[in-house]
Amino acid sequence: MTSKPSRILLVDDDPATRIGLAELLTDAGYETRALATFEEGLRALRTETPDLLIADVRLGAFNGLQLLVSSPRTVPAIIITGFADPVLESDARQHGAEYVLKPVTPSLLVKEIPVVLRADFYAVAALAGAAVVVVGHLLHWSPVPTTIAGASVCLFMRLTAIRRGWRLPVANEDAGDSSAAP
C-alpha cells in the first residue's frame, strides 16, 4: 500500500526560484502547486488543504508570513528569504514556521520537509507520553516504570509515524457550514 504524496503549496514571486523549487519538490515525490502572488496563495489556502506551505518572505506588498497568518486553517510552513531578519525569523517561529535563507540548498530543503510535516504528530506523541506519566502519578505508580512507559509510548508513536507516513488529519472547516456550496 503506497501513501498519497504530500501536497505542497509553493508561493514565490520570482519565476526562476518558483520553477526551480517546484521542479525539485515534484522530483522528490511531492504533489506541488506553484503560485506567484500573495492573492493566488491566499485563494488556494481558502479552497485547498495543502499539507505544507512554502512561501517567500517578499510577495509584492505582502509577505509569506502574512500569508501563513491569513490562512483559514493551520498549515505547517517553511518561509524562505534572501535576507536575514531576526525579527521576521522570530515571528515565523512563533507561528510554527521554519525559516530558511536563500540560496536554498536543495538537499537540505527536501530533508526538512518530512520534519516539518511530522512536527504536529510529534507533539501529540509527546502529549500521549506525558499523559501516561500523569496518570501513573495520579494512580501512585512507581515513578521510574511510569516514566519509562510514557517515554516508550512517545517513542513508539514517533517511530510508527515515520514508518507508516502518518500525519495528523486536517479538518475540513467547511464541513459544518450549512451555507457552503456542495
Tell me what you see in this structure.
The protein is an alpha/beta fold. The protein has two domains: 7-104, Rossmann fold, CATH 3.40.50.2300; 119-164. It has helices at 15-27, 38-47, 64-70, 86-94, 106-138, 143-164, and strands at residues 7-11, 31-35, 52-56, 58-59, 62-63, 77-81, 98-101. Strands 2-1-3-6-7 form a five-stranded parallel sheet, sandwiched between helices. Strand 6 (77-81), helix 4 and strand 7 (98-101) form a beta-alpha-beta unit. Helix 5 (106-138) runs antiparallel to helix 6 (143-164).
Global Rg = 19 Å
Strand content: 15-25%
What do we call the CATH homologous superfamily of the largest domain? Response regulator
Shape annotation = elongated
Strand order in the largest sheet: 2-1-3-6-7
CATH fold group of the largest domain = Rossmann fold
Order of helices and strands: EHEHEEEHEHEHH
Helix- and strand-based class?
alpha/beta
Low confidence ranges: 169-182
User: Class of the largest domain in CATH?
Assistant: Alpha Beta
Question: What quaternary form is this?
Answer: single chain
In CATH terms, what is the architecture of the largest domain?
Answer: 3-Layer(aba) Sandwich
The main β sheet shows up as: 5 strands, parallel
